Amino acid sequence: MAGSDASQAAGGLPPPLAVLYERAGLPAWPLPRVLAEVYGGDLGFRQSCVYANFVASVDGVTSLGPEYPSSGSAISLHDPADRFVMGLLRACADVVLIGAGTLRATPGHRWTPAYVCPAAADAYAALRRSRGLPVDPLLAVITARGDIPAGHPALRADALILTTAAGARRLHGRLLPRGTILDLGDQPELLPADVLAAARARGGSMMLTEGGPRLLGQLAAGGLLDELFLTVSPVLAGRGDTARPRLVAGLELLPGRTEPAELLTVRRHGSYLFLRYAMRGTAPAAEPGGS
To answer: 269 vs 40, 80, 103, 151, CA distance in Å?
Structure first.
């Protein structure tokens, strides 16, 4: 996940991102002027899209390990442009999809646009109004075992908990009244395709995942990931005895399997690179009315 805690999100907007490359013909939604100025143009998606957002060190580390909660902000060095882009991607989403491990690792977080970049809150809200969306995207949490902190502040608003029959029994009576527990059946693990179908039925077709390397691996394995946004932070994380996941965990691809990606855009803020890829070998086509 790119970025982290609200105390690190204070301050104004970052300077405009420099557009180094952008593939012609991408879908484009008109952004409010403030967002377009900072992002360096408009941003859009196909009508139904599953997209991920991560921050990684130069040596590819996306998490510093279980003893370092909220480590995305440490990897991003609290960069304001990274927080702005994360807020913008949330503002485009119907649903923000995370795993239970991400929820546990970020005890104070809210998965809303304004939480990570308060300076752009009004512009994010204007974008969502223009698209007929509620103030914030729906938070959907995946937990096969029902192992989530029921008192987490992100669960005080409407949230969707996607779990198994065993997980639903464990969570019964523990969540605040506004949370919805959705039992996806008596099975040891949740299938990514079932999770996406349930989230779409409750929240909508634009789905952002900030769910961690294992969830990303599951989506990639199922051919379910459409796009990847990756911030490359100008820092080395290193790797010693601590388990430090890279972008994909729990899945081996090469040499037996190739998951091609097409570079769609490259933006820069100082020494940070903001990359956008189309996954599954198919880049999004412009939709009617897009530029």
So the answer is: 11, 10, 29, 37
Q: Regarding beta strands 49-57 and 227-233, do their DSSP bridges make them parallel or antiparallel, or are they unpaired?
A: parallel
- For residue 237, give the 3-state DSSP assignment: coil
pLDDT at position 8, please? 38
**Average pLDDT value for residue range 102-121:** 92
| Average pLDDT value for the chain | 87
**Residue 91 one-letter amino acid:** A
How far is it, in rounded angstroms, from Cα 18 to Cα 41?
A: 10
Sorted by sequence, the CB contacts under 8 Å of residue 137 that are 6+ apart come out as 90, 91, 93, 94, 95, 96, 111, 112, 113, 203, 208
Rounded to a whole number of angstroms, the distance between the first and last alpha carbons of the chain is 29
> Domain boundaries in the chain?
6-279
- Which numeric CATH code is attached to 6-279? 3.40.430.10
Per the CB < 8 A criterion, the answer to whether 219 and 229 are in contact is: no
Residue closest to 116 by CA, chosen among 140, 136, 142: 136
Question: Residue 268: beta bridge partners?
Answer: 18, 273
> Residue 152 and residue 18: Cα distance in Å, rounded?
37
Residue 60's SS3 state is coil
d(CA 42, CA 174): 42
Which range has the worst mean pLDDT, 26-35, 56-65, 85-94?
56-65
Cβ-count burial of 42 within 10 angstroms (0-12 exposed, 13-18 middle, 19+ buried)?
Answer: middle
Question: What would the pLDDT profile of 130-147 be if each residue is shown by its tens digit?
Answer: 999 999 999 999 999 999
CA-to-CA separations, 30 to 95, 127, 128, 271, in angstroms, rounded: 20, 9, 11, 27
Considering the entire predicted model, what is its pTM? 0.90
Taking the CA atoms of 35, 84, 149 and 165 in sequence, report the sign of the dihedral they define. positive
